[in-house]
Structures are given as C-alpha cells and as structure tokens.
Amino acid sequence: MSCSLVSPPLVKAKSLSCPNCGAPVTLRGFAHTLSAVCPNCLSVLDASSAEFQILQTFQGKERIQPKIPLGARGTFNGAVYEVIGFQERSVQSGDDFYSWDEYLLFNPYKRFRYLTEYLGHWNVVRVLSRLPEPARARGRAAARMDGHTYAAFDSMKAATSYVIGEFPWQVRRGDTALCEDYILPPYMLSAEQTDGEVTWSLGEYWPGSKIWQAFRLPGSPPDAQGIFANQPSPYQGKVGSAWRTWLWLNVALFALLIVFTFLKSNREVFRQDYVYAGKNSEAAFVTPTFEVSGGNKNLEVGAHADVDNDWIYLDFALINDETGQTFDFAREVSYYHDSDGTEGSRNNSVVIPSVPGGRYYLRIEPEMGPTAPSTRYEIFVRRDVPIYNYFWIAALLLLIPPALTTYRSLAFESRRWHESDYAPAVSSGGGDD
Amino acid sequence: MSAPAANCPNCGAPVKFRWSSAVQTTCEFCHSILVRTDVDLKKVGEVADLPADASPIQIGTEGVYQNKGFVVIGRIIYEYEQGGWNEWHVVYNDNTNGWLADAQLEYDVSWPATPPPQQQLPTTPPQRGATYVWDNKTYEVTSITKAHYKGVQGELPFEYWDKADVMFADLRSISGDFATIDYSENPPVLFLGRAVEFDDLHFKNLRLFEGWTS
Question: Pick the residue with more confidence: B162 or B142?
Fold first, then answer.
C-alpha cells in the first residue's frame, strides 16, 4: 500500500514551450532538470519553476552538433543511460586554446554520469561521494584513494563555451570551474572547483569504438589523436613481464650451460714444465707424444708463464704423429704491474675447434726479450673443453626484447607527460610532433 | 511490526502506522499532519501539495542495507537554491529506524550518532574544509546548505511541521563515510552514515518513469 495521492507511482515526462521563441522544450530528466536549453533559439531556461524563465539568450552564431545526439541511449556496465545534456568546455591560457566535449548521462534510478571527449579520446566519468587525500609521489603532487596513488597531471580553468540539452544545476554559458586532473591510467581523478565547492569524479578511459558500440551509433568514431592523459599504455604491465621472462630464460640458459659443461669430457692430455734460459736456450723443441681421444672435438693448448713485468712469445705447431697433419698458432703471455694496477695475465690459451683423434706432439718455439731472466713456464693440453662464448652471446640477445619494451614504454610515457603541467623543462614550449 | 489503526480527526479516514514508534504521520486523504498523543491523533497542520519530484523512491519502497531489510515509511522534503533532496525515513526489520537521503540520485544512509560525539559540535555551521574525527574516522566539511522545509509525508520519528529554514553541514571521509550536522535543533544533532550506490540497496516497489523500464 502506498500514498499515491500526492506522489504518483508513474512519473511522466513534461514538455513546455520556450518563453523566448515558443518552440516546444521536452524535459528528459524529469524533475531533476533545473535548467534546459531551448533547442530552437538556444536560450538557457530555468526549469525549476513551472513558467520556464529565461536565464540567458544565445548571442553566438555557430551551432555545435554533438557527436552523440541528445536523447541517444547507451548501455554502460549493464545499465541504460540517456544523453540529456551537452557542453563544450574550453581553456584559454596565453596563446593556448583548446576545448573538450562533455555529455551528461541520465538514468532515472542511478546517479548521473558524464562522457568526455577530447580529440577522439573518451572517458566515462562518475561523481564520487568520497574525498581523495592529497599526497605526494615522486616529488610531485598526487591524490590517494582506495590505496592507489594518482599522479597530478594538469590543472586548468575551464569555461562552458556552448551548452544544449538540460542539466540538474543552473547552467550558463561562461560558467567557469577550476579543474585538476590526477592520473593512474586507465583512470583519472578530477577535482572540479566552483565557488569554493570541490566535486571529485573518477573517469575511466574508453576507446571511441566502445562508446560507438554502447550507443549503437552508425559509422565509426573519430580517430584518436596523440596520447591522452589517462590513456592506458600498450606497454602497461609488459615491461615487468618482459623482464620476468628474461630472468627465467637466463635461468634456463644457465641450466643449459651446466648440462653442456657436464657433457664435455674436459680431460687433460698433456702437462709439462719448461724453463726459458735466456738466449742460451734452444730455439725450438718438441714435446713427447700424447694421446688425443677420438672424434672431431676441440683441443685447448694453454700456457702459464711466471713472467713479471715481461712477456714470452710462444710459437706452436701441433703435429699428428701418424698423419703429419699440422696446426700452427702462437700465443703471447705478458704480465705487467705497477702502483696503478696490472695489465695482461700470466695465462693464455687457444682452442682449436676441430682436431681429429690420434697421437700428437707439440713443437714449441719460445721467445723473450734479449735481457729476459730465466723464466719458468708450463704448457698444458686439454681435450673437449667447454666454450662459453655462445652463452654470453645468447645472454646478450635475450636482453634485447625487455630492453626494447622498456624503451618503448618510456617513450610512450614521455609523450603522455609532454602534454602535462609537469612536462620535462627541455621539451616544454617546443613544437609537438 | 505493529500497525495500530486510528482515524484521522479531520476526515475520519483510517490511519495506519507501519512503525510503532512513529510520532507523526500525514493523512493520505486530506493531507492533515497528525501527531500521536497517548490517547488519539491530533491534527497540527496541513501539508501543501508535494512539489514535482523525480525520486525513484516512494513510501512503501523496500530495500536491503547490510543484510537488513528496510521499508520507507515517511519523508521530509528539502529545497535549496540549487535544487532539492528527500530525507526518506526508513524502518529496518529489527524495528530500528534511520534515514535514506536521495539528492539527485546520490544516496546516503544515516542514523543519529549514538552515543552523541564526545567532541562538542560547532554551535554554528563550520567552514567548508574543516575536519572532525568521529569513530576514528576523519570527516571533512564538503558543503553548508541553507534549506527550506518543503513538505512532509508519512511517518516520522518526531514532530516536524513548523520549521521553515534549516542549516545543514555535510561531511565526507576518504572511504565513503557520510555525516550531517543538523542545525534545526539546539544543540545541533549529528547523523553518521555512508554513501551508497543504488544497486547496493536492492530496491523493490520503486516508482516507474515514462519511457523507462526499471
């Protein structure tokens, strides 16, 4: 049972005529509408009283056709909303002039929503009944809400430059508000201040195609130009995952390296100490033969020399005792040190990639400076040693995808912040690309 | 829920109470404002026609807040220079009562603060931006409103029919808490509550709107 005498359960839309031009003005927002614009003469009318007083007549010449017509209905998060008001809001600061469009969305049960559009970038906005906290993040102003930090992006004084439809407040062309935007893509917190009263709202970035879908509009939405404040980065979350992938691939690479090391026999087949005894030494000598196991595998020939601020040059020939096949190569071992540090190393070696199995010996021709002291050196030969160069190259190649993603993400963010009040000083005032 | 029946002293129509503790109601037929005495109903005034109103809520609307069912049994209508709002008087299924504000489809539920706050309420409306702490929550004054009493309907927990101008201070917190200081009483009365979304209240028996399906 309800009191139906004074409060009819069915609320009817009302329609009146414009006191300025006589054209019919239909109200879509029922008694929520406090001001309405005559669609014919664009006078702003006071809709709170029965007799529609004129608040403002239209002096301009240019009429703006909203991209979404008044009366269009669209579905947002499962609820239907109707476009009942439209305003163009513009900002003039110095030589800078720009404007964006705002659509007022109405559902008779749910709170009003707004749609904003700037150069093809759309936001679905709802007013908040909570107060975000002022905060600081990375040395600049921010706002905190629900445990999230929104970075200050810009602030501006916006004026209503064009208005049609109806509004639940007393709207006028020329109304100004101080707007501050804080971003956490795809979200944007906005504080709008009029007469000292602050209204906070939360916008969510929507691509034009989703807006067109929600309203079932014909054709296609205008192309988005540039990067908008809270436009989600295509690299959002990808930088972290690229580095995580990199980490796992490195773990895999390391595991592979261990397996690879185990698969190599890495066996010493020869080791012998020698002494270089100055210019009295033999010019060249041969080592005893040693057995190199079968297959075409690598062979490392290395030297360790007790040189001290000196060098020794070793000319090698690896000779197959059975076939006479010869591999010629040379290595220098040089080691210098002083108070500034050290240079060179007492060790040096060479890896011959493919040496058939068989009996071998080395022919060695050492050479040192004419005043060199008697110097001990050691020669060793190892069969089938692991080589890690490919692993280093692989590790470097693995670095490319995450580095590239990081670079692209940073470039995107730099373009985003270029439009902000907090743009880096270097790029401010310059021409945009 | 007791529904003691009586007759309107003005027109004789039956008057039903949905809430046993109601102090005042309005006669649905002759718009008389009726105040309950120990014995019977006394006519203390008359309401004018209610203003055109687009609240989806009406007397008899049911809903659920924090798993407690409620029914709307009365309201006070306020008007100020920027529009108007409804304070719906609701009674919960445990026979407690509270308020549901509907200001341009923004909803807040609230109750008189119990016990009244330790911190003395400002005797005159505070400045916007001033902060207060109640129940360990920080509230900031978001608006000061001078409103005109525009009408009453249905059952109310107190006599309310001759007050014209009322000052209200609305406060909000970072996490959606809501408070109002009502300066119609001396000393002022504090109401504490929360901002709520339409969908969270699971309404039934709402009004219908031409051209819309609920």
Answer: B142
